Amino acid sequence: MSVRKQGPIPIEISVLEHQQGWRKAKEKTASETAGLNFAHNKAAAEDDALAKNDTILRSIPYEHGFSPLLWRFITDVEILKKWVYLMWN
Predict the structure, then answer these.
(1) Which domain holds residue 49?
(2) Domain contains 2
(3) In a domain, 3, yes or no
(4) Which tens digit of pLDDT belongs to each residue from 11-68?
(5) Which helix (H) or strand (E) holds 58?
(6) How far apart are CA 39 and CA 37, in angstroms?
(7) What's the predicted TM-score (pTM) here?
(8) Helix axes of 15-24 and 38-46: crossing angle, nearest 10 degrees
(9) Which of 3, 24, 45, 74 has the most beta carbons within 10 angstroms of its beta carbon?
């Protein structure tokens, strides 16, 4: 079936989808500088009340078409596995 026939993509994120997404995330993944890391978010996703609150807070910008200021700036670093070889060749 073509994309057009499927219609618009739903913008709502359910609490279950939110929890399933955090279960797949790796705890050691780097995250925001606000103090909470992925392990905190994964733990919060296991609690239904915290997961519901987090789902709402993360959904609002997506559903209303804006991005919070802290979400706009990232540091992207490439870690070369063989930097010595690459520097001398």
Answers:
(1) 10-88
(2) no
(3) no
(4) 888 999 999 999 998 877 777 666 777 888 899 999 999 999 999 998 999 889 998 8
(5) helix 48-64
(6) 5
(7) 0.66
(8) 140
(9) 45
